[in-house]
Amino acid sequence: MRELSRSLLLLGPLLLFLALAYVLPFLGVLRWSVTLPEPGLEQYRVALSDPLVLSVFWRTLRICAVVTVLSVSAGYAVALLWVRGGPVARLLTELCIFIPFWISVLTRAFGWLSILSNRGLINSSLEGAGLIAEPLALVRNEFGVIVGMTHFLIPFAVFPIASAMRGLDERVLMAARGMGAGRTRIFWRVFVPMTLPGVLGAALLVFVFSIGFFITPAILGGGRSVMVAELIYLRIFQSPDWGLAAAISVVLMVSVAVFLALLLRRLSPGESR
């Protein structure tokens, strides 16, 4: 009992902060969704039946799924080089992982805009080399949004995967090598399955982060690849329709929570951790 009291005493300030910073605002948004412009559940009916809102939801899920796959795949390769590479490779990889955290998301989005735009670095180089006659459409579409979001989220995918790789028992790899398995077979049949908990953790982290992206899709999508966060912003500041924006927010949060709960239930306790 004394141990529990100490734990609650230490966790008390954190729980209070989380309640004030997250639970209280969410309750306010929930109240807006059932009171604006009139009391009732009309805004939820609109959010779940309006073709425009549904198309934005599906676009968001599609983009987030693609970004998750790309980020986790690239993050696995980077983590492998970071954990299993030589000293120089580890140092360079570490710099590539941590330097992006020093650059704001807004700066990175505009950087990609300067690279992918019609007069950007890629199109200018290809046109100068005579490889294309007209600029490629690399921004103001889903491609540009996916590129920008993937670049931002790769470092977040690296850490859970690298943690899983560092926790591997080297004796298992040595046993597989001693039984005559080659490097490729060891990698796909032993190494990758043992790091799957880290891969799943990275996928959950990246997917949840990508759901709420706003700046990158707004800049690189150019209003043609609107995601849920941008739709909420438009409904609040341009329509304005605060009730519908609040209902969309609640539906999004509940959907993500249910998805995570179902996924975690299918994992073993070790994988859940």
How is the secondary structure organized here?
Elements: H1 2-35, H2 42-49, H3 51-84, H4 87-98, H5 105-116, H6 121-128, H7 142-166, H8 170-178, H9 183-194, H10 196-211, H11 215-221, H12 228-237, H13 242-265, H14 269-272
Helix pairs in contact: 1-13, 2-13, 3-4, 3-7, 3-10, 5-7, 5-11, 7-10, 7-11, 8-9, 12-13
Percent of residues in beta strands: under 5%
CATH class: Mainly Alpha
Structural class by secondary-structure content? mainly alpha
Determine the N-to-C terminus distance: 25 Å
Tell me, what's the shape?
globular
What's the structural domain tally?
Answer: 1
- Architecture per CATH nomenclature, i.e. the level-2 architecture: Orthogonal Bundle
CATH level 4 superfamily? MetI-like
Report the average pLDDT across residues: 87
Approximate helicity band: over 70%
Biggest sheet features: none
Please count the helical segments. 14
Order of helices and strands: HHHHHHHHHHHHHH
**CATH domain topology:** MetI-like fold
The number of strands is 0
The low-pLDDT segments are none
